[in-house]
Amino acid sequence: MAKAFYRLQKFLRRTQFLLFFLTAAYLMAGSLLLLQRTHLVIQQGLHGTSTNQALTVQDEMTRVGITDPRALQNPHPGPRLLVGMDALQEAALDQRHSPRWLTSRNSELRQLRRRWFHRFITDQEPMQTAGFKVIKHTAEHKGTYIGCFTDDSRERTLKGAVFYDLRKMTVAHCQEACAERAYTYAGLVYGAECYCGNTLPTTASNPEECNSECKGEKGSVCGGVNRLSVYRVEELQAGARRWRNVIYRGCFRAPENLTDTFPASLIQPNLTVEMCSEFCSKKEFPLAVIQGQECYCGYPTGRFSLRDGADGLHCSGTRNTSSAAEGKYCLVYQTPVQDTRCTDRKFLSTKSKVFVALSSFPGAGNTWARHLIEHATGYYTGSYYFDGALYNKGFKGEKDHWRSRRTICVKTHESGKTEIEMFDSAILLIRNPYKSLMAEFNRKYAGHLGYATDRNWKSKEWPDFVNSYASWWASHVLDWLKYGKRLLIVHYEDLKQSLIPKLREMVEFLNVTVTEDRLLCVENNRDGNFKRSGAKQKDFEPFTQEMKDLINRYILTVDEALRGRNFTGLPREYVPR
């Protein structure tokens, strides 16, 4: 009996020890998990703006002489964010807009903006690309299947237009896109990439080599690895053909020798814009030039850059014909065809020695600037975040790790000493805060290409958004001015107005040499696939007077800071409303 009791006692001691050990392990694991989550929350709260944010702004205020005289009399209140104006020295407003308030506001919105940047756009309607029409995809395709062909990315035959949809590509989607641009053939590769053109590839492949399923249509084949599934596009109906996007570019002085300047030409009695545009589209040229009964096709070049337009009176007649006084002037139209001289892009073959940021406040045109840089340099840009919507539309650097150094520069909206000092240099893109705030609010509620509804603007979220994000616009610039090692300041408005000169500065800053023709190609494709479409309210003013007072303070602060660093101040249109 004693022996049995001893065994039982021994077993219970072991069990007790085992339970104690398991309990301790469980508590330790839970503690580690809790600490990790707390660390992540702290990182999300402080990653965009360092704990020295208040000191950053305070130092900047002091340096540019922005102080509150009452702070000298009463040392207890925190420093004020003022601009030396009597109207800006009301006690209630001073307290709200002090650096202490700025820091607390920024810490509150960090988690919000993180969620916005890392959120995939899976819950939104399919985005419309410029010139793309969102259609219902069906398994029945219009057009005729030609066959499977070899795809050589270096010498691609179907290169008239290029589209990506790495989630929802279908055969019908690609065919419709190519038909809208007057192309004869549509080719799909890798299950997600669409190419258009008027000439068939030369090398046929075995049908079974086109074995990649379309990303957006199960059971349909969209090419393969280096293999194109090619379809002949069905001609659009006559009414739809007239709808094709032919854009009038203006009246220009004709070059001295039209035949040498333009590689294709046509002489046609009773020539019309539609005739010339159709002819140039078939030849895969983006410009249709009309002078009397003569039609010329080509690209913008150094000899014919389209920069200096002439008075429309010099081009007599209607927009359908042009007698062009004494043959010195001509009418120019943009055909539906894409200028392909700058569409080829790739990753850097070797790691970049200089780590360059493309930094901006959200809504300041960072995506548009990336489009310009990629097409000008021929290299992909990276991103500190991953935006599935951008990746699906061709920004392949989105999926590359942001520190891989395989991209020409890296998009970021971050600020704070640690985040800024990771980069060797930066292009700092600044936009009017009024426009930036509206653009980011539109993006939040309607994606990259849509507009927020009237209900969104009238909700309580809009005032909260302005109160939080206006301070971020200012602190973002101030931090980069303080901690940035080598900066190129680019104002969105200047880039939009003088695209080629400003883009040339950006390309030179990135230490890349490009040709004039490539820059002209970028200018010809300046909008890319991310220009907002849809109903835009005219004369819409969502800002209250209180909001304007808040934003104007930050405008004056940033302007003084830029001038204090020997940079050009903010454009005149930023001047408080």
CATH topology category name of the domain at 356-531 and 543-574? Rossmann fold
Strands side by side in the biggest sheet: 1-7-3-4-2
* Percentage of residues in helical conformation: 25-40%
Largest sheet: 5 strands, antiparallel
Number of helices: 19
- Low-confidence segments, ≥5 residues, pLDDT <50? 37-139, 237-243, 318-322
**How large is the radius of gyration?**
29 Å
Distance between the termini: 97 Å
The average pLDDT value, as a whole number, equals: 77
CATH class of the domain at 356-531 and 543-574: Alpha Beta
Instruction: Name the overall outline.
Output: globular
> How many beta strands in the DSSP annotation?
17
CATH superfamily of the domain at 356-531 and 543-574: P-loop containing nucleotide triphosphate hydrolases
Counting helices, strands and paired strands, the structural category is alpha+beta
Task: Tell me which CATH architecture of the domain at 356-531 and 543-574 applies here.
Answer: 3-Layer(aba) Sandwich
Strand content: 5-15%
Protein name: WSCD1 protein
InterPro entries: P-loop_NTPase (IPR027417), Sialate-O-sulfotransferase (IPR051589), Sulfotransferase_dom (IPR000863), WSC_carb-bd (IPR002889)
Pfam families: Sulfotransfer_1, WSC
Domain WSC: 142-234, 245-342
